Every structure is written in structure tokens, then in C-alpha cells.
Amino acid sequence: MKFQFRHRATLAAVAAALMLAPAGAMAADSDAALQRRKQYLETLQKILPHTTSTQLTGRISAFDKDWEDAIKRTGELPPDFDSMPSTPGLPDPLVLHLDSGPVPIKTPEQWRRQRQWIRSRMERWVYGKMPPAPDNLRAVVTGAHQEGTVTVRDVRLEFGPDHRATLRLRLFIPEGKGPFPVFLTNQRAWVYTPIRRGYLTCYYSATDPNYGDQDDSDKFIEVYPEYDFACLARWAWAGMRAVDYLYTLPEVDKRRIGITGHSRNGKQALLAAAFDERIAAVVASSGTTGECLPWRYTTDTFAVGSIEGITSGPHNTHWFAPRLRFFAGREDRLPVDQNMLLAMVAPRALMMYAGYAEHEGNPFGYEQAYRSAQRVFRFLGHEDKLWMHLRPGEHATTAADIENFVNFFDTVFGRKEYPRLETWVNNYTFERWLQASGEKIDPLRYPERKVGDFVPSTAAAWDEARQAIRKNILWALGEEASGLPGQGATRLPDPSPPGDNLLGLLFGRPLKRPGMGAAVLPFGDSLRADLYFPAETDGRPKPGPWPVVVWLHSYSYATGYSRYAAAPFESLTKRGYAVLAFDQLGYGDRVLDARYFCEQYPRWSLMGKMVTDTRAAIDAVSQLDVIDRQRIYIFGNDLGAKVGLIAAALDPRVKALAVVNGFDPLRLDAPEKGTEGLGHYSHLHGLLPRLGFFIGRESRLPFDFDQALASIAPRPVLVVAPALSRYARVEDVRREVEASRAVYRLLGAETALELQTPLDFARLPRQRQEQIFDWLQRLH
Prior knowledge:
Radius of gyration: 28 Å
Largest sheet: 9 strands, mixed
């Protein structure tokens, strides 16, 4: 089965509607669109924090100190999102967008047209417009000397109107007869290794001045005032000017110019290579958001740098074009994404390189982008020139990483062959699960269901209905493999010695805050959770018994529960709660453990394992003598909300549940809604693969979250569904919650189910966390 996200509306449909509309209607629609855009800007300014910048970082423009100034000065408005198609998955790089509609790309000529289209949209929405290459570049050699056997040459490039733009280069030319391959970078510390391996190394002065370097590109703002290219685009454009000069040198092998950079410099290196076809290869190293990591997989859901965060500052407000910030929470409306920038490098060579446990990383997003770009490299006959290495460790690189970069350049330049790197962390596909499981499900054998048709007419009939729902939930979770109950402790364990869990050590676990103690709690299948508890100033536990909150994290593949958790854990422990936190399978310190799950347990599901683990964690914590067993609560965000809903539906020990951004109305999540739909569970994250058979037949699903929610009645549940979430339409959430409320009403507990729909995106700011904690405290 092939799964594709579908547009909410096609460009052709929009164009046709405009052509058929009367002139008066078009004018009215235009006025309405203008009002919508103005209103949305006001909403955006209420939701997003005010941006900040510092004098030590680059400028947004010659006039503006922050995003708000830029918007006020230019009068620019967000696009009319209502008229833009929603593309919840990655936009297809092999679909050409014409006035007549989308056309599959079949020829190299069509791909060349597509490259121009991608570039125009990238410049419009992400990076700003770059000037054309200058036709008056001149080079002034300002110095030359020997360092051992290496010739060091300092050069100042002068170009642009009246030659007012300048860019300094430093070349390191190895001894011997050229021409030499080129290692081009704005990372000063990276020049040593490529020189030893026979590369002419060129450093250009266009990077962040915070690290002792100088940014010559900042002055381009005044030299080219008619172009709005943002900081990263200026750095990349500077790298392209370095290539202009390298092309004039007899020492340079023009067919073998490779560029690379790390972090923010990785972002600009990829951009330079995508736009300049003279660059034969690029290593994009740990640039994450705005580099190899697509914007669609950088929301708060993934606990990485989102559009909101990366455009807020204080050190990166100027990196991207101000209009990118309009797409915060509306990433699905971006016409392009970073997978398309990766594809622009084809058929030249590209290595995607990052740490799978980086705090700003998301290995899931990298793998999705890699698969997308791989289709283009394969179409052009050079799949071997696309590499991906998701290494262990955090953000910083080592000398061995630089050696890997040169290995890649050597291989694709035909100098010497090294093994192609293609390392996977998750590597789930629906097709792989089908092959492993042999599952075949005919959705037409299941009856069509309507929202709320599971609600009986009397409370007496509910027990039987609940059992039928439980059966359907277990069907969706799959067939759990037989196992043993975990062995738990009755007394609070001693703190675990540091260093016994390497990834936990990398994540800074246990998290430390004043008045908060921590201990490791074994549970389930040789697993471990961290229990945080109220502590005295000397670290000793305060007297119990404590109510406990089981904290279920979002789709934070790289860091599990750790990132952003210290502050809310401190708040909960100050309120007298214990907090039990652990990483789900495939996340955090278990990020590598789900790679072969569908082969190991072909009839089970990843979500089934997560629910089993959650219940095992409840088993363990409920045995402790310091825990109040009558006050075991679950707090779940995004992924954790879905796991929490099912766990609470199956486990009456959960006395209350708060879920944020995770209530997903499956039967209403049809493709035309512009959301990820059932493919989110079956094709993307591999949570509930059986649901994939029901794509396009959503009404025949045996299971939905409104049934799980109703099964929790009459216990208290708080559902927080942001009104602007792009993952679940708030109208559909409200409809299914109200269906569940009918069961609460039958049981005389209507007020125990609460729905909040704040005007916000799918995120969890601190203020909302505290509001939820207040709700928990009101329960007792």
C-alpha cells in the first residue's frame, strides 16, 4: 500500500475558482483575504513571544533591530493561509508545479525547471532574495607566507557597486603539483585535516562573530539594499563568491570543490551547494533546523528548534527571512521544505551528518528528509552520492568527524573509495512492517461507524459497551507477547551513581533543581525510570505519601523526556507531587531500541509496547510506600497524550488524566482535512500499523480515541486541544469529546470531563503547564 499526503486544495483548483468567479466576487474575496491576513498577524503577535537580538549578532537589515520592527516598517502581512494548500507531509520534490496543476517530473529538463521553482520559493519564504553573481570581482592578495610545507595566501575579494563589498579569504595550498581538490569552509578550526590529505583548503570570513571570527557579509546589507537576503543567505552567497575566485586559480581542480560547515555554518554550506552547481559536494553537519531537518518536523511536538524558537532570538533572529516567522504553527502551508533543498544538490554529492542524540536534533526528521531526497538522486542516476550518518554523541564534532568528511569527498571525487555511510536510527516503513507481519486487513469487512454511536442509552448497558471498546483497543494495539511481571521495590531506591547510563548522562539525568530529589526506579522488561520527589534542603525525601504524576513525553526522539522537563518537574515537586519519567521505546535513551521492533514483535505494535511499559511503570511506582496509590495521575503531551489515553482506558489505577495536543479524532481525520491522518500512526511513526489499511476508509475504523476517552469515565480528564493545531482540527476534537461526554453524563460525572481550546498552536508553554497543575491540585 502506498501512502501519500493529499493537499487540502490544489493550486489548479484555486486558479480555477478565481477564473470562474465574477469580478465583484473576486474583489470581495480579495478584501476578505486581506482582512484575514491582518487578523492573523494580530493573532500571531499575541501568541508568539517578542523577538530579541543583540549587537554581537548580525543584523536583520540596515533598519530593523528585530522582527517586529521589520514587519512594522515593511507593512508585510502573512500569506492568506486559507487559500494555501495544506501539505502535512514533506512536499514532493518530483512534482512540478505549473499553472495548469501539479505534474510528475519525468525528464531532466523538468527537474531543471523544478530547481528554479524551489529556489524562487526558498528565497521568497525562507532565506530572502540573493543578488546575482557580480561581474566585477577582483582579487587582491594581501599576504603570503609559508607554514611548514604549506603556502598560506591571504586574499581580499572586492565586488559589487563601486567594489564596496569585500570578502577575505585565507588559502592553504599544499606542496606538490596541482590542481588540488578544494575543501571550502567558514569553520576556521577545520582547515588542518584536509591539508594533510592533499586538499587546497579555503576559509572565507562569513560566519558568526561570536566565535572570534569576522563576518564580512554583514556589510552586504548596505551594498545591496534592494535584496533582502538574510544572514544565512549572505554567508552562503559569500561562499559562492569564494568559488568565483577559486575558479580563476590554476592550483584548483574545478571539478572537485567540496563545501562544509557545522551547526549554523552547516545551514549556509547546504544552501550554497544547493544554489551553486559549481560546488561538487557538500557535508551538512549538525545544522538540524533549517538545514537537513525539515520545518514540518521541527515543531514543539519534537522538542527541537521550531520556527517560533529559531526566529525569536537572541542569537538567531537574523538567520532567516522575517517572513518565515509567519509559518510558525503553519509549517504545513510552506510550499517548500528542507528536503527539497537537499534534493537541489542532486546529482552532485551530499552527506547528511548529525548526532542522533543532539538536543536540537530529530533523527526521525532526518530519515524522512533522506528518503525524500533519495528519490531525486535515484531519478538522476546518482543514488550513491547521497550519504547519511547519524552518529552517537551531542552537537560538537571531533577530529574523527572531519576525517569522515574528507573520506566522503575522496570517495565522491574518485580519489579513494571509502565505505558509503548510511546509518539509520529508526528506519521504520509501513512496507517493512507488512513484510514482517504478513498482515492483511480488509476494511470493508468492518461496519461504518459514526461519532458517538458507541454510547448506550442507559448506564446499566455501559459495562458491556466498555468491554467491546476494550476489545477494539486491544485489536489496534496488536497481540502482546507473553512476558513476566516486573519486580518492584517497596522502599524508595537510593540515587543511582552517575555514569551508569551513558545517554542519560549525556542528557544530564537525573535533572537537578532545588528542593527536588531523584532516584532510579526499575520497572517492566529491565527498564528504568527516574522518580523525582519533594526533598529537603539536604536532599532527604520529605515525608510522604506523595501523589505521583506519570509524565509521558512528546515525539522527542533525540532527548526523550529530558528537554524542557526540569522546570515543570520542579514545580510539581514543590506542590508536593512525585514525578515518574521514562523514555518510550524509540526515544531518548531508548532511541536505538526500536529499529527492529516490527521484526521482533510483528503482531504487536509500538504503541502497544508503550502502553505496556506505562502500565509496568505504574506497577513499580504503586508498590513504593512513599506513594499515595489513590492519587496516581498521568500527564501526557502529544505522543504521551495518546499513550496516556489508552493506558488510562485500560488501567483503573490511573485516577486522573491530563492530555495536551494528543486527542486525535481518527474517524474524522480524512485526507481532505489537510492533516497527517491515519498515516501518522501507520506510515510515519509506526505506532499503530493496522490503521494503515483504513486510509480512505476512516469511518470503518474499529477504534477511535473518543471511545478510549469514554472508557475512562467517570474519572477526571482534562483535554487541551489548541485551536490552531495543524495536527487535529479543533472542531473535530470538540465533536468527539462531546460524544465521550455523553458517557460521563450517563454516569453522573459530566463535569469530570473538561475540554480547553486555547488560541494557540500545538505546543505546551510553561503558563499552560501551570494551569494544568492547578487543575490537578483542585482534584483533591
